[in-house]
Design goal:
Elements lengths: L1 H23 L3 H6 L1 H17 L5 H25 L9 H30 L3 H14 L2 H10 L3 H33 L33 H26 L4 H16 L2 H4 L4 H18 L12 H24 L4 H12 L5 H8 L5 H26 L1
Length: about 400
């Protein structure tokens, strides 16, 4: 019986995005909302109604959710990068945005420390260090900074739980209105889909994506792209175990990204026209699975109220400063937002928001910035904790 239930849940997670994409071609409201935001809404509803309220359902479904969320993005990244034109990557703009992002995080973490430290107790400096580690390189840095600072397990767990909740709200905010607001404040040139540019950047129309992925014309290229992506992910896992003895996200993503970029320069790979669509479909699956894992009821928001305020201040405050500084230094809207996502949520979420933007030009900048954040976030977290402690 349990095996049948897991099969049904697997089918649900893998097939629902296809149904939503198909509906978006017929229902204008769904097309305007966007497939990624729809995946979040559906995931939240399903988790709230069918997973957490039912006794034993969470324990049964969680291993499947964990496996899908762990596999989909590392597999999606090379598929997406195969289709990117790295000869047009604006390195100077990306580095400028990275520096702006780091400065923004430092300002809000330090100012937030002085605003909330009287409510956070003796762990205030350590919390500031952990938040710095998270929001310069993503959640994996949280555990590392926790160990380096010898933070109490209870403090670590509540920081992690509240971070998941607020980061989730942050992603929904970006997909719903944040991107549009940033494009009104910052320079933004709408992508064009003419013949001269469509191979390198280009606007992504969800109603036209995912069509004919396995048609006779595209089947060979699609299967070849999937096979190469699986091989690259396998090499990344192998390198991670070889270097660290386990799965290290920094090593894994760095290896995957490097090999995928190298592969994108091979002319034959450039002809796999549907690799990007397959990668983005996996992003939709990831969005649905992650949303179904959210359980706000499990959070102790009463005892963690001031910590919630600090984390919300850090996330949305750093995003606000990122936009304001980007306006000053003429960084475009999409680069500014994708930088914030890469630092707040990690490179794993970059393709998701790039999909919401309908602009794949920013993917390489976002992933590269996120990788740098992974590499330096632990040290910056310890530095901030030391300065404030």
């Amino acid at each position: 019986m349990n095996a049948l239930i897991l099969v049904l849940w697997t089918v649900f997670f893998l097939v629902t995005p296809a149904l939503v994409v198909r509906m978006s071609r017929k229902v204008k409201v769904i097309a305007r909302i966007g497939a990624i935001l729809m995946m979040y809404f559906i995931g939240i509803i399903v988790g709230h109604l069918l997973i957490y309220p039912i006794e034993g359902a969470r324990e049964l479904v969680f291993p499947l959710q964990d496996a899908l969320s762990s596999v989909t993005i590392p597999l999606a990244i090379p598929l997406i990068l195969f289709a990117c034109n790295f000869r047009e990557w604006p390195i100077k703009k990306a580095l400028t945005s990275l520096i702006i992002g780091l400065i923004s995080v430092f300002i809000v973490v330090i100012s937030g420390y002085f605003l909330f430290r009287s409510h956070l107790g003796d762990d205030a400096a350590s919390v500031a260090g952990m938040i710095t580690g998270i929001y310069t390189g993503g959640t994996p840095n949280l555990a590392a900074v926790k160990m380096m600072l010898d933070v109490d397990e209870g403090t670590y767990l509540i920081v992690n739980s509240i971070d998941m909740l607020v980061s989730f709200i942050y992603l929904v905010f970006l997909a719903a209105v944040g991107i549009k607001l940033a494009r009104k404040v910052l320079p933004f040139a709408a992508c064009e889909t003419n013949e001269a540019t469509s191979s390198s950047v280009m606007a992504m129309d969800e109603t036209q994506m995912y069509k004919d992925i396995f048609s006779r014309e595209n089947r060979k290229g699609t299967l070849s792209a999937i096979g190469l992506a699986i091989l690259i992910m396998g090499v990344g896992l192998g390198m991670s175990f070889l270097i660290t003895g386990g799965i290290d996200m920094l090593v894994l993503i760095l290896t995957i990204t490097t090999l995928a970029i190298a592969a994108s320069f091979v002319p034959a790979v450039g002809k796999w026209t549907k690799s990007y669509d397959v990668g983005m479909y996996l992003v939709l699956v990831f969005s649905l699975v992650v949303a179904s894992m959210a359980d706000p009821k499990s959070l102790d928001l009463v005892n963690g109220f001031w910590l919630l305020c600090y984390i919300a201040f850090a996330i949305f405050g750093s995003l606000t400063l990122q936009v304001l500084f980007s306006r000053l230094f003429r960084v475009d809207a999409d680069t500014a937002v994708i930088t914030s996502v890469a630092m707040i949520n990690s490179p794993l979420f970059v393709p998701m928001i790039a999909g919401a933007m309908k602009n794949k030009r920013v993917i390489i900048s976002g992933i590269s910035i996120g990788i740098i954040g992974y590499a330096v976030g632990n040290y910056l977290g310890v530095l901030i904790a030391g300065l404030l402690g």
